[in-house]
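[Meeting: bench + compute handoff]

Bench side (C.D.) handed over the final construct sequence. Compute side (W.E.) agreed to return the predicted structure before the next meeting so the bench team could plan truncations. Sequence as handed over:
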Amino acid sequence: LTTRSLCPGTNGFLVLTSHKALVSSLQVQKAYSRSWSQKEESMADLVDALSEFSGEREEARAMMKAATFLIQKLLKDSVHPVFKATINALKYLLTVFTPKHKYVLY
């Protein structure tokens, strides 16, 4: 990871310019936590961030990549509540976020 800076208008989301991803640093900390409740909370926060997102084409793509990365990591978790929350986040990403930003993503 190279450069970190706060992007204006992203409600405190951290921009990792080397990966062009918009993720909250708190969300990432929770996703990598040892506590399953923190991981579960991370997925709920991700769904909230996806529902509140409004941005341009590149920002939508970056948000989708960041969300996919976190979902991919937490799908491998063996704790059922974390897995269930991750499946709900994936469902939201595919059924709500993608159609809402379809003109932007393609």
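W.E. noted at the follow-up: The chain is about 65% helix and 10% strand. C.D. will use this when planning the next construct.
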